[in-house]
Fold each of these.
Amino acid sequence: LTVHILWINFITETLPALALSTDHPAADVMSRKPRDPKDSILKGIAPFLLIATLCSFTVGLSIFLFNLDNGNLALTRTMVLTAVVACEMFIVLSARSKRSILHFNPFNNKLILGAILATFSLHLIAVYSPLSKLLGLVPMGFFQIAGVIGLSSLVFVALETMKAVREYMVYKGIMSM
């Protein structure tokens, strides 16, 4: 629904973006070569964006198709919306660094962790409060929420695996960073 798109933009783009802006720069930021001004600002992050988008889409579509026959479209929409919010929060965790979690702790910034928890809490409040009527949401059971979060975490796993593979290829000299 249109209101779902507005809700996603409202809760996933405010607190996490503010928290990301306070994150410390990478330790090697001053030793990197400057970016060519002729290059796109998206150069080098296109694979990250592509994987994040494809994984989020796949998670949402899988939940939709799996629950399509349950006869409760509102529940299916609520689960898909929750998955999109969760996927966005896992993307925030992964987007903090070009390095994989093998070399970087994605959980060391308490502001970002707080923003992620606050964002997800706001979403759950919307699902379980009178605001749910306005947003067209219905309550989910514990196992539905756990399943949605579990599936959504695959976005984080995929992004971190991609970064680890890239680091390995750089280490082996197959490609350059």
Amino acid sequence: LGLYFINIRSFNYNNAYASMIGFLNLAVVGLILSTFTTRFVFPMISLEGRRFWVLGLLPVRRDHIVWSKFFFAFLGGLPPCCLLVFLSDHMLGIPRSLLLIHELCCVMLCLGLSGISVGLGARMPEMRETSPSKIAAGFGGTLSLVVSSLFIMLVVVIAALPTHLYLATRSLAADSDAVNFFRWLGSPEGVTVSLVSVVVLGLLAAAV
């Protein structure tokens, strides 16, 4: 993915296409992260099933064990994902304001995907299975991947909607209620509402 981002400048996109490609690249980074969290983070608690009594003897609360796995997943996925998004936007020549929006969405994606994989992994463990691939391919792993994909689509669509509605309605001279509403979504107020919605959605996904 990094090699693709490095060579993306050779395609010479205009501003509208560069913005769209930037959000699509953000979605791709999130989808790749969701496959990693489903494959490697979701099975972590299940793999400790028969040896969990050892952890039970430690002077550590069980919720601290779950929180440690969450922070491991979040802090492990954050740097490479943010670097990939930055590389994509830099090569596309996207404005700094839009780059910051993409980075905020990337942080929320890492937060929510980590919470989904760790939370569902603790809620639906496979204590008798010893193969991580079989655990990830089971019902819980499949559900985690589906929920993660829906979460990614919601975050990207909510963040991308104001930008593309603004670009689509900027050339329209009509003064209808629909056009005015779309222009409001593309205004700073509409962008602020969309970003607040993204942050709330990311925190909600992690909390639940």
Amino acid sequence: KEVGERLAATAGDMSLLSVSVQMYATVTLHDYVPPQSFWPAPQVGSIIVSIIRDNHYLQKLEKVGITEKVFFRVVKIGFSAKRKMLHANLRSGLRLSKEIILSAFKKAQINENVRAQELRLEDWLKLIAALQEYMV
């Protein structure tokens, strides 16, 4: 159940796993399956998850000229230190100045005090598009 919930996470609970899966597919949670439905009964509950391939975000990446490699490089850096503000992770991971990072946040209309788990996929796309001219 916990893995299913992580796959289908929304802004506030996102992880590298949820961003990665949702980039390629639509995740839907269905019925809860209690432990008593199995023999022997496990210590955890289960949930039925459907993962349907969806190219929606890949097309958006292509439209703004961002490669999958660049997208996942930035997202991975963003989630590298979970407790830190996203701008701090990106500043150190991309080796860009604080001014450039904060300018990109402003351009993407994202609060500079956000953490990686709070962004939606659309936010990641806007932020990376704003940063891409400064990345090597």
